[in-house]
Amino acid sequence: MDPAAPRAPSLGGRRAFILPAASPPPMVEEESEAAAFRPLAVEATVLDYWQRTGVPARALIAPAEGPTFRFTEGPPTANGPPHLGHVITRILKDVQLRYRRQRGYRVVSLQAGWDCHGLGVEIEIEKRHGLRSRHDIEGYGVERFCAECRSDALRVAALWEAMSLRLGYWLDYGHPYRTMDAAYVESVWWSLRQLFDRGLLDKGHYVLPYCPRCETTLSSHEVAQGYREATDPSVTVVFPLEEDRRPTRSLLVWTTTPWTLPANLLVAVRSELPYVTVRLADGREVVVAEAARARFVPEDAPVVARELGRELVGRAYLPPFDLPGPTPGRRRVVADDFVTVDEGTGIVHVAPSFGPDDYRVGAREGVGVFDPLDSRGRFTEQVPLVAGRPFKAADPILEEDLARRGRLYRSGTVRHTYPFCWRCDSALLYRAMDSWFVRTSRVTDRLVRHNRSVTWIPAHLRDGRFGNFLTEAKDWALSRSRYWGTPLPIWLCPAGHATCVGSFAELAELTGTTVGPEFDPHRVTVDRLQVRCRVCGAPGRREPYTLDAWYDSGAAPFAQFHYPFEPGPFDPSAPLDYIAEGIDQTRGWYYTLLVLAATLFDRPAYRTCLTSGHVLDEGGRKMSKSRGAAPDPSRFLEEVGADPARWAFLSLDFTEGMRITPGEAAKAAHRTVGTLGHVVAFHLANAREDRLPPVAERPTPSGVLDRWLLSRLEGTRAAIERSLEGFDPREAAAAVRGFVDDLSTWYLRRSRPRFWGESGPEARAEAHASLSYTLTGFARAIAPLLPFVAEWTYQEVGERRFRDADASVHLAGWPSALADRDPELEQAMERLRGWVELGRALRQRAGVKSRIPLAELRLFGEAAAPSALGAEADRLLADELNVRAIVRAGPGAEAPDDAAWVVERRDGRPVAALPRTPTPELLEEGWSRELGRRLQQRRKELGLRYNEPVRVVVSATGPLLKALGARREALARQVVAEPLELTEEPLPEGPTVRAWEFEGVRCAAQVIPRAAAAAPDRP
RNA sequence: GGGCCCAUAGCUUAGUUUGGCUGGAGCACCCGGCUGAUAACCGGGAGGUCGUCGGUUCAAAUCCGACUGGGCCCA
Asked: Chain B: nucleotides under 7 Å from a protein CB?
């Protein structure tokens, strides 16, 4: 492979897309069916189009010109399939990347990436073969084991890829970077050599978190991921003082880890703290810090002595277990400031091998360490009582032994947070171990300084959670005693000199071998090599460690390009412009990126960091595999669709914890995504019916509704642009929601007569042009957010027919101004809609349904003032409220007589007035409309096409009959009745007959579909 | 023990940066209307101690302090 050669992006091999299994066939059967919007069917059509024509690969090709936008995909750990919590960050990444691509940025890089190394992958393979220890793995064969790790990482990556594609997250999945690839490893080695040469990488012996199952140390940021509530023993033990002036006196010592007692080498007190000796009922005497007395001894037990901690120092005591350890015999009391009285007795048992403070104190006092556990955390023969038992399992046995010997003072349990292995869930222990460290504590100031220049979303993370963590940064324990990882490229010669190898060429040189293209830089291969010491020339052995996999991913921005071994777009001086991940990465990738950027390049790693909260389960708790309730995102996507899922997440405040279920997601999405889809479907039905061509040129309509729509469209486009320029899509989502609402519930509702041609062909053409232009423009502006619906709209409305890649909305670029804004017009429309609400409220108070026309709505004062909408304002208002006229009263005019009118007053002055009753003629028209509506309802129930003729018989009497007679022709036309018969005779009861009563008059009607042979078109 | 975030109607939430109209909206509920795109839509109703307490102010959901509850992180 020659990674420097230009290569076409691709979305991967086998199955680039997964088509929804149980959804309707992609293409609509006939044109009239397009009137329905079904998200899953639309997405199937769009996925098929993308796959057929290669749209995504085209969209991913970086333009030759154009500003650079730096991005790196945070590589998912390939040890398990994605869960719902991973969906949100992939949406957030995709939205921003689509936007930048549409704007013509050269995005560096759109490579997919997979974090292939590490314990997580190893554990999967161990489970598969029932391997329970490192010994088992070595028996199984390290080479075979690693080969399986490699193929499993690829298997899992494929699952992620499929989910991502279904979601519409476009990356170059065909050329991913993988942390296990030789080129990647070489870049990692290069970086380690840099750190080594700067003295930031060295070996130490420290107390570290250790997983007895994985048989390796962990880093503090790994431990941070595994704290959990747990129940542990809470025991108080007596340590008898030897040769004391009070012969029966004992020290009281409290611990939650009885298993560490065999390793006890010292006891620590605090010098300046007062201690008391009290006599118990049975005559024994115990020493305890005065401040802890109430918690440990009965209130009435008399105090027989008082002394300060320093007076106890140097006293000898009998250890809890008399073992032939490295320092048998006497133990003594020492003083140290780490002792507190917050929970214990103020007298602390010190086991130097099992605690950081213990280790420090033990080293100072020169007592060494005593670690009676093997690498799997089991007791060795050094403690015969519990030999062979896992450390925690020894607790009850040790406790029982103490009790038998009268050393147990009190026993119980305590609930507290305790660290567990974040990968395999075993209880961790702290123990003194050898490890290689990145000395991050020496560069804290750099980490803090560079972090200050990062734009965090949400902003509080900078100085809050993340900033705080940086100031406390501890040295990074980098090495793991494992198999499947980047081998630590450090060799020790017999004299103890360390040689760090920074490239394959150097490795060849120092080993005297050749490193060919087939070289696989993993344990089995590398462990065989002997490297000549750079200092003394003696052959050395490799330090048998692999790297913390978080180091691999932190190296991604440069290692993905095989920097510095190949030319590429990586610029050591340029941070990434944008990354987006979940909040858990503050201790993971965010941190390791920053550490490597600061130590290698002395700059921040990223300029903007968008962070999502956790996806929570229905109980509002963090989703986790262990709790079981982590929905499969692929199923979720099939259930609700990708765009609805995207919309559901984008509508939430994703910076906080998010509770989401498929049902709620679909509901949340329907309001906007569904409504938009139906508007498009409505438009298509009209356009096809009337054979109106799509409109791509900006129209210049005269009508206020159209001018208003275009102004709103541009406002929405600008809001999306502003929002995405600022990397935070929340404002964009709100703007889209508002626009779709206006489009559907005001523009379309008020424009319907025009679309039906009731206002003449010119008005229809104007409305069509406005809506056609608006929908295609809007499709381009929402393409980053809703790539499927945008594509479908763009194709369908623009009559592009899903034919070729050139026609894709995702190649159409970002729209510049779509129209001129007219804020005055938008405000006037806002006010007008206010008067509509007022008019409706008046109708309600008058008790006159909207169907029955009223003579006029009279407006006063401000409401009567001329509007920027001009004369059309009155028509909109009159139509919406079904009144014959809008009458604007002059200044200072009074409202008409209250008996015949309902009047809305504000501050005592009239605003609007409506007659209480219709005129007889208007009432009759209302009846006719009512009947028309009910007949239409019947037609709908019978499932008739809108133009299918029927025979209608209406039975009515008196004034109703007369009124209907006068309007018979219009009514017949309305309901496509051929003929419409009126009769005074009552109709017989039957399944085709419906009887109604409205406004005190009775009426019945029968609707009979005519033979199928009837004319297909409207007369 | 420490840090960060959150708390508004049964549920989801806008408003909090920069104090100021009667705290908006959606879902669900009740009443009514409308309906040849829509699981729609429109009007009205009911539902809020804006977590609690205190402070600042002419004025606090908004600013300050304490507390309670929840989430996440650290020890």
From this structure: 1, 3-6, 12-14, 26-27, 32-44, 70-75
